[in-house]
Amino acid sequence: MTTLDRNIAHPGYWPSSWPVECGGNRRQKAAVGRLDAAIGTATVTTVRNGRWNVMAIERQSGQWYVGGTMAAFTGPPPFGWVQRIDPDTLEPLATSPDLPCGDHVWCGAVLAHADGSILSVNGSYLHRLDPDDLSVLAERRLPVDRSHNGLLALADGTLITKDLRLEGQGGTTITRLAPGTLELVGEPLVLTEGSMGRIAGDLRPDGTEHVYVPGTEHLWRLVVDGDQLVVDGWRPRYRTAGGPQGLAWDACLSDGACWVMDCGDIDSVRAIHTTEPNGRWDQPPDLSWRRPAPWSGPQRLLRIDLDDPTDVREVAPFGTPGGGIIAPPVHVPGPVPGHTADAAGIAVAWDSINGGLAGIDDDSMEPLWHLEVRPSMQPVVFPESGELVINDFTDEGTDDLIVVDVATGDLLARVATGSRIANGMFLSAGGHRDVWYCTTLALSRITWS
Fold it and tell me: Phi and psi (nearest 5°) for 223?
């Protein structure tokens, strides 16, 4: 069954088209409407705020928030932050106090909760903020003193997050909290594997709610059962410890399948998460994501059936040894009314280290097209018009946004952002033929007219 993320109907979020990272718990990164970039002119508005901008979310229509951390790998202590942003000038209308993060440096998450508040996870802390002045309404130090990545709301409004652990670092801890007080709901659940990628969620029509966790060898599924999180029997293996492939980032849940890319724990990620506090040094090492991969395997895209964990299909669309990424894949669901039929049923994968973007048929798992670009970010897809927006870090060292026809792989538009830093941060769809672009030191909004 096809279900498209539309969080206006999700009871955990404020009614908005983009209240949480990736636009929804299924992480489909699917935007409402069309961009039509090929027939428009792009205007870029940028502020260089010197912050590590992670993601932009919307609460009320036109009410945008940006959350992030400070890229303080050395020197003064880091902190998390949230700003309410004027969508035209990108200047902050309100700024939170410096939010404690346990001295960890990593990209956290923000969301607009159904109760109206803004929630922020950063490092080992969770904060609940007033939506107007971003003052702190509640603060919780999380049970595990490590960086946490990803923050989702469940159907009952409770919050769920997890710490980040690489291979050999023990089991990851899944923590569930009450949205108002940030008190723990039930006991934290510790899996027997670490987990690097962010959690995804799925609220089924019968009311069953699942949480998907990418482990170091398996994909794990948890069932929300009252105040408890219960591990169920869906646990497909996607790699073998010590093998030629790296770890998976986040999952994309679409058309009855879980889509993941492996080869994500590149050298810079390993460096950040094998030091304590995470990402802090007297003299930081080389943190470039362009370093050669610490494994021999090519970049893979995997499709795992949500009902049959033995149905695991894979493709290495580029075939180049030592592939690597710092973001998850996207899949255009179908058939959904209003979609471009040619784009539905196509998954998109890439190789950040070696370069390459590919469209893949979701049934045969055969590549349909290749484009010689170098993406690294969390993309946005416009299913109605069949457009994909992602970055391309060029050989000249600039980070451009590109718009690609998902059905054909044709390059429809290229926009210079002015940034010379590329990372795995989030693009967000603004709802008015616009896209928000977050990166280290700069924030941009690109509008087509």
Answer: -105, 130
Q: What are phi and psi of 7, to 5 degrees?
A: -75, -5
CA distance 63 to 83: 11
The residues, any chain, with a CB within 8 Å of residue 242's CB and separated by 6 or more, are: none
**Neighbouring C-beta atoms of residue 426, cutoff 10 Å:** 25
- As given in the structure block, the two tokens for residue 238 are 């996607």
% of the chain surpassing 90 pLDDT: 94
What pLDDT digit, counting tens, does each position of 354-383 carry?
Answer: 999 999 999 999 999 999 999 999 999 999
pLDDT digits (tens, 9 = 90+) for 113-138: 999 999 999 999 999 999 999 999 99
**How far, in Å, CA of 402 to CA of 391, rounded?**
6
Q: Is the entire prediction scored with pTM above 0.85?
A: yes
Distance CA 48, CA 322 (A): 34
- Residue 341 vs residues 65, 84, 332, 345, 346: alpha-carbon distances, Å: 33, 37, 10, 9, 10
- Do the beta carbons of residue 247 and residue 262 sit within 8 Å? yes
- As beta bridge partners, residue 125 has 122, 141
Strands, E, within 319-362: which ranges? 330-332, 346-350, 357-361
Residue type, 297: G
Q: Please, how many CA atoms are within 13 Å of residue 197, restricted to the half-sphere of its CB?
A: 32
Token readout for 177 is: 């909290």
